[in-house]
Amino acid sequence: MSDAFGRFAIIIHPQSVSDYTKKFPFTRFLPAAVVERAFTLVPPFEASHITGIVSATGARAEGWFIGLPWTPRVLLAMPPQATTRRLVQAGRIAERLGAGIVGLAAFTKVVGDRGVSVARELAIGVTTGNSLTAATAVEGAALAASRMGVPIGAARVAVVGATGSIGAACSQMLARQAGELVLVARNRERLERLAERLRATAAGPVSVTSDLRAAVGSADIVITVSSAIDVLIEPEELRPGAVVCDVARPRNVSRLVYERRRDVLVIDGGVIDVPGPVQFGLDFGFPPGSCEACMAETILLALEHRYDDYTLGADVDLAKVEEIHGLMRTHGFRLSGLRRFERRISDDEVEEIRRAARGAPALSARAAAVPERL
User: Which of 14, 156, 158, 350 lies 20 to 30 Å from 245 when distance is taken between CA atoms?
Assistant: First the structure.
């Protein structure tokens, strides 16, 4: 491999109005609505220089965070053409800085056509990072389930947001492993099409529902990958001993689950430790030296000097999921253990959750109900 640094950029945005204070402290003194509205007029900008990435192979990379100062609420409210224009502006900054590939992080990969139009306008590669996000969501859920003594092969697994790009990829992988798979989303027609595709290779039954509460209440393992901007899962909706992997940002799982349910294991999905003395140069809500899986995909492609488009559009290619997951291991990237709200979960804490689950009261009739089948 060439000794030259791989170079990349990642387009990020604030998850909430409170995030503006990390880069612009003066905003803490202004009304939230004023801040959010004012920043719709601010163009993308170079937010930080990322250094210190050293692969297990010896390859090195540097990059940049490009800030698009729009919250998820703004990104979803704006016309897709306006969002695409802003993302292309951000991509042009990446080109000028010397990046060979740019990653679309968080909601920048959800809006519009998931990077396809942006890629057409740029001379460098573009990826949403959804391939590695899907791979590590399943890996993280399997790790957490193993720690809780829940074998996937005998478990009822619910995927919330199953018809989305990441959700469909997770569902394809889980269908081969799960004792039973429950697909959860709002669009019944898309759910049925996905379920029909999965049944040919599924290890167990595949069911569909739009009843979120019934689905998560009956599941042993829940993976949430919805693009909703509000909390979807509350404390009373989970069964004792459930394992929940929350991949969504903003989170789909209420913090109250952690505070009130000591018999449920909730983990943050897709938190990746990056090798080397990494300096991201910006507080973006992750522990030092770690980042989201979608960001890690961009970095891995830069380390490989793979500057073509990679993961784009609504469908995720499982061959790419497997390839990028392999590159993650090759370069010494790894899941950041079990984490919840940026805090590591110890083995002792997992054991306490297991003990609490064994002593919890029986599940209610509603929670135990099986979602409808096709």
Answer: 14
Neighbours of 89 (CB within 10 A): 16
What tokens appear for 193 in the block?
């099409």
Per the structure block, which two tokens stand in for 54?
Answer: 């050293």
pLDDT digits (tens, 9 = 90+) for 164-206: 999 999 999 999 999 999 999 999 999 999 999 999 999 999 9
Q: What tokens were used for 32?
A: 């939230």
How high is the mean pLDDT of the chain?
A: 92
Burial class (CB in 10 A: 0-12, 13-18, 19+), 6: buried
Residue type (1 letter), 286 = F
The token duo for 184 is 């959860």
Helical packing angle, 318-330 and 165-175, nearest 10°: 90
Distances (CA, A) of 174 to 25, 52, 161: 43, 35, 14
Smallest Cα–Cα separation from 275: which of 325, 339, 332? 332
pTM check: above 0.70: yes
DSSP state of 334: E
Residues 152, 145: contact at Cβ < 8 Å? yes
Cβ atoms of 160 and 222 closer than 8 Å: yes
Cα 327 to Cα 323: distance, rounded to the nearest angstrom: 6
Fill in the DSSP letter of residue 150.
Answer: -
What is the band of 364 on the pLDDT scale with cuts at 50, 70, 90? very low
Distant-in-sequence, close-in-space partners of 341: CB < 8 Å, separation ≥ 6:
255, 258, 268
CB atoms within 10 A of CB 294: 28
Question: Angle CA(166)–CA(215)–CA(74) in degrees, nearest 5?
Answer: 45
Strand ranges of the sheet holding 180-184, from the earlier edge strand across to the other edge: 206-209, 180-184, 156-160, 221-224, 243-246, 265-268
First CA to last CA distance, the chain:
50
User: How does residue 367 score in pLDDT terms, banded at 50, 70 and 90?
Assistant: very low
pLDDT at 374: 39
- Tens digit of pLDDT for each residue in 141-155? 999 999 999 999 999
HSE (CB half, 13 Å, CA atoms) of 24?
A: 16
Using DSSP bridges, classify how beta strands 334-335 and 6-12 pair: parallel, antiparallel or unpaired. unpaired
